[in-house]
Amino acid sequence: MVTLNPQYIQDTAGKKLVILAEKQFDTIMEELEELEDIKRYDKAKQKKQTSIDAEIAFNEIEEKSMYKIRIEKAVVKTLEKN
Hints:
The chain is mainly α and about 80 residues long. The protein is built from two helices and two strands. The protein starts with 6 loop residues before the first strand and ends with a helix.
């Protein structure tokens, strides 16, 4: 947990403002981002989803990419003939 040393001021309209040191602000923002990541993770874990091994997923992506490249090359050859 971060130790905060907030300073409170009031603008001319009477609105209260909080001033923090930049490092304290940055730390708060990092912790908020981490909390958001945790919430997303927890939400994803609650869903009933199937998963596959990362290596299999990467192989499938690579195969699809190679297939797309072959299609593009075939299209280029066809266009060059015409």
